[in-house]
């Protein structure tokens, strides 16, 4: 892969670059086969390298009274492939529910995005749903700058390349770029990259519900403060059996357990032996969230960054959470954030919703 241009890549100047609020952009094209491959404009908006930001989170999580591990450990390139298998598994109802809702409502949802807007997708993933939305915007003759924000460079590049095949830069009204970084990085980038045009943030796949209701409110507050509006897709299913089937099957097990080798890779040691851990899922009724855990198969002593952490057989480390919030709960979360649900599109059973959120 040839990097054809880049704004300063000098690591030493990184802190001064960040302090001037300039984010690195790189433009590259793949020419291995000599074919005309489109360039990818990728902005590295990370304020810290991934290992630098995640290792302290792993340590803090092991030190905390209720042990937890950063959910971001799940989202490396391999994690995204494993998540694709989750999306394809017949028991994973949120994927089919969101697809059919988007299919039915995509034209109406797209009316909330105007020509000239900047559309930023948080946690863009495989961008299959994105393609549906961008096709609709194109059919509505809108010119849109689309930015896919996600955390793994190689997965982001691969998925952008696939999307670019559908929307070639030369002939399409839709211009595609990438933002490499977390949601927080993206919020910081937005603050220093104000645009004259309106910004719409799209958060699909129930991803906002990976945070507690309080954290979700804080994210909304932060994004709305940049003057953006938000399109948020959320699962409101309350059927416990269906949730357990969907989140506790073999595909989910593999997806969650992949966090352990990723932790080892970032720590540079084999602190977590995957054979020592099992996966379990549970419903947390206080938070209206499903929670996934690593469970110690035997008594363990883990050495991480020079400290030893003891686990008795059966003790857990919490991994990812997935909230199941019906409309009333979503409205409450938005209100807490100083926002308001301006419009919403629900499936017939009212178990899945897409919400348009703006400042109150
Ligand atoms: C549940 S998947 C949803 C993917 C896609 N939007 C969809 O609807 O199929 C969550 C996506 O968010 C990304 N992600 C998770 N945590 C993130 C964070 N803190 N900042 C940025 N992206 C994140 C993951 O890499 C993944 O692509």
UniProtKB/TrEMBL annotation:
In which organism is this protein found?
Lepidopterella palustris CBS 459.81
Q: InterPro entries of this UniProt entry? A: EgtD_Methyltrsf_superfamily (IPR051128), MeTrfase_dom (IPR019257), MeTrfase_EgtD-like (IPR017804), SAM-dependent_MTases_sf (IPR029063), SAM_MeTrfase_EasF-type_put (IPR017805)
Disulfide bond recorded as keyword: no
This chain belongs to which protein, by name?
Histidine-specific methyltransferase SAM-dependent domain-containing protein
Which of UniProt's keywords are assigned here? Methyltransferase, Transferase
**What's this protein's family per the entry?**
Belongs to the methyltransferase superfamily.
Give start and end of each Histidine-specific methyltransferase SAM-dependent domain.
58-357
- Biological process, per Gene Ontology: methylation
GO terms, molecular function = methyltransferase activity
